[in-house]
Amino acid sequence: MTAINKESVLASLATVKDPDLNRDIVSLNFVRDLRIEGANVKFRLVLTTPAYPVKEKLEHAAREAVLSVRGVETVEVKMEFDIPKGRGANDKQAVPGVKNIIAVSSGKGGVGKSTVAVNLAVALARMGAKVGLLDTDVYGPNVPIMVGVNEEPQVAEGKLVPLNAYNVKVMSIGFLNRGDKPVVWRGPMLHTAVKQFLYDVLWGEIDYLIVDMPPGTGDAQLSLAQLVPVQGAVLVTTPQEVAMADVRKAFNMFEQVHIPVLGIVENMSYFICPNCSERHSIFGAGGGETLSKLFRTSLLGQVPLSSDVRESGDSGVPVVAGAPDCPQAKAFTQIAENVAAQLSIAAMKGDSLPVISIGDSFSV
Hints:
By secondary structure, this protein is of the alpha/beta class.
């Protein structure tokens, strides 16, 4: 029997490249714990996102590469993921345990920003990631209703303990200011609240902290940008010009505070008639694509208009969890996959974000 050595196995694995990073899986440290037991080779293939688009193809390519080594008869590959910590400005204080912070913003109300934030968080958690959801919309905190949680958070180690919903750690001013009492705060008070929600909450180990921003381009957005390294922003719009005008302002605001925009989500994109199955563009068409081209960013996804999404939000069961196979849930899942992929590529490359459009395909 021909003796197998690690060098020959690693050399063969080095011929397999990640399609996005254009580097081999050995230099990327994807291959770990390589063991050779007679004619059997075992190793872990550790990817950088829970939504790796060509996971099966990459596993197959790695397996075939090892089988091509003389003397190898069987290969055991254990697929895992380890989300890298996003890069950020050195002058910002990171939130302990949090790897990536993602702001979900819109520039205006009424476009379904909180719905996108909630379903994005739940979709990432369903992929196996550790996720937190921070509701900074202190004047209209809808996240507690949308996730079906209405309790006061406990205190431990002098910090608030986030509540859990659908395997997502959730914190909102709505948990503290319960009922219909309004929050009447000036800017400095809002800044203090955002700071406390970031640093005075026991988030624990979090891969993605989704931050649901209030409408507009004001104090909360500036506070977030000043306090912590934010890996990227997701901008939510509907197709019509009234919504896009405000999203253009939001994009320019994030550019001014040096937060990269991950891409555009077009919500309420179209409506499929249940009787005739025709597609109707109730709020116009092509707005999200127009914005993504204008700002050279990604169109992360288009979410169809449906009463199911509204009903799921009112009932506290996000559509991604309650009806994962419906078109809206699939759209949110695709958005989560695109967001995770972009953050992974940016973290590994350390440069500008890639542009990913709907339907992109990858090959090994």
